[in-house]
Amino acid sequence: MLTVYRLIEMAGVRKVSYPPVEPEYYEARKEEKRIESLFDAAQIVQNVFFPQLKKELVTAVEEELSAKATSFNYVREFVEKVSNRFWNDEYAKGVIEGPFHQAKHDLENLSKWFAQIYLPLKHSKFALAAKHIAIPSERATSAFDPENDLHQRRIANHLLALGRMTVQYTVEPKTGVGCVIMKDNDIVAVGWNDFPLKSIEESFHYATDQERDGKYPFFIHAEQNALLARNAKDVTGTVIFVTKIPCHECTPLVKVAGIGTVVLSTPLKPVQEKYSLNYDTFREEVERGTFICYEASTENVS
């Protein structure tokens, strides 16, 4: 803990927020007062913070768990496991200044959100979307293969989970898309679909459902967002993990960027979209061998 404090102070951090979760370090209580005095001396503000999910996202999570036939008992066991692992009533009451029960309720909602992300991935299997397309020998030796490599399967699950987490940032959780670009086992970009400007978002805030449908042409898609924000200029031969099939707008951008492998958290099958997006372009590129594509199929968690 002292090492972490020194790094925080050297970095010039002036405020630290942390959840009301009991520290894992076995000597945490012994050092707690020493750390507090050091924070006070350095004038670093501390406050307890617990993430509150948007109401729309909580509703979307419950609907998705129900749609995937995820057993209520399975979700409850997962929520209890998270609570038992990270929550201690006595410790939380000592650090929370606001409503205690509200914080615990927020933890339950967060646990359901994690369940919606992790339970399907835990029971998913990856397979090549176009098995009849032979992978060129020069690409096969260094190809990312979550179907046959256990370590790479875990990486795929982890980064797809990260992609799903980024949906929290979008204004449309139900239609949210997230993606992650990996180069040489390092994350070089994360993206989600959202408005390019805050002013555009605000203009749709109080619109009717029908009027709000008109906002989708203004969105920057997750893949576009990630490519614009990447911290590596050259992403040739990299892997992109996406929570939804890339559309006709994003597919050419991913192709031009030189990304070689696409890992999906869904099966690569025809998508019925009521908006003007087309997903056949990506499927056609996969059939041509432009991308090595792995699709995930998930068994019902019951």
From TrEMBL:
Instruction: Identify the residues that the record assigns to the CMP/dCMP-type deaminase domain, covering every copy.
Output: 154-278
Top-rank taxon of the source lineage equals: Eukaryota
Q: Which InterPro entries match?
A: APOBEC/CMP_deaminase_Zn-bd, CMP_dCMP_dom, Cytidine_deaminase-like, dCMP_deaminase-rel
Q: What Pfam families does this protein map onto? A: dCMP_cyt_deam_1 (PF00383)
**Keywords, ordered alphabetically:** Hydrolase, Metal-binding, Nucleotide biosynthesis, Zinc
Q: Where along the sequence do coiled-coil regions lie?
A: none
Has UniProt tagged this entry with the keyword Hydrolase?
yes
Give the EC number(s) under which this enzyme is classified: 3.5.4.12
One GO molecular function term? dCMP deaminase activity
Q: Please list every transmembrane segment annotated in the UniProt record, as residue ranges.
A: none
GO CC annotation: cytoplasm
Keyword Signal, does the record have it?
Answer: no
Q: Which family does it belong to?
A: Belongs to the cytidine and deoxycytidylate deaminase family.
**UniProt-recorded name of the protein:** dCMP deaminase
Biological source species:
Pocillopora damicornis (Cauliflower coral)
